[in-house]
Design goal:
CATH class: Alpha Beta
Structural class: alpha+beta
Number of helices: 4
Shape: elongated
CATH topology: 50s Ribosomal Protein L5, Chain: A
Number of strands: 5
CATH architecture: 2-Layer Sandwich
């Protein structure tokens, strides 16, 4: 039995694609930029002293994304950080398909409005239509139980699109409901 389509994917197909074709004058539906993947990274520098920290981070990231994270290991040794090549120092998850759409829906509608003094995301992109944002704490996600959090950790979320320019990527995310800050405001 096939599950129903995520609401944000449905919105993308029914509303965003026709609007993007109108705005940018695409002749073919396949020209319209789409979201390729969402990568969620959590750096765990404390894992150098306490290897159990990486397991806690993995559990929290799995709760947040609904997918088991991959442990990232150090590429080279850095003596000033007491870091040896091959030591676990973080974890990441790459979301695609329905999980990606569900995660973005939750991020835009539930998680970001829970950030204290949230005025919108900066409109800065990477030059290729991809967008990255950093969150200071994992506790803003509804899946995380505040009573069980031992240490507050930040995370980076990168939304990778097939857009050829920042304008296309920003328009795509805006139409999907990404809460960008207005151009004029600085805070």
């Amino acid at each position: 039995m096939k599950s129903e389509m995520p609401p944000m994917k449905e919105k993308y197909i029914k509303e965003v694609v026709p609007e993007m074709m109108r705005i940018f004058g695409y002749k073919n539906i396949m020209e319209v930029p789409r979201i390729e993947k969402v990568v969620v990274n959590m750096g765990v520098g404390e894992a150098v002293q306490d290897p159990k920290e990486i397991e806690t981070a993995k559990k929290e990231l799995a709760l947040i994304t609904g997918q088991m994270p991959m442990v990232c290991k150090a590429r080279k040794s850095i003596s000033s950080f007491k870091l040896r090549k091959g030591m676990p120092i973080g974890c990441k998850v790459t979301l695609r398909g329905d999980r990606m759409w569900h995660f973005l829906q939750k991020l835009f509608a539930i998680v970001l409005p829970r950030v204290r003094d949230f005025k919108g995301l900066p409109q800065k992109m990477d030059g290729h239509g991809n967008f990255s944002l950093g969150l200071d704490e994992q506790t803003i996600f509804p899946e995380i139980n505040l009573d069980q959090v031992e240490k507050v950790r930040g995370m980076n979320i990168t939304i990778v699109t097939t857009a050829k320019s920042d304008i296309e990527g920003r328009t795509l995310l805006k139409l999907l409901g990404c809460p960008f800050r207005e151009e004029g405001s600085r805070i």
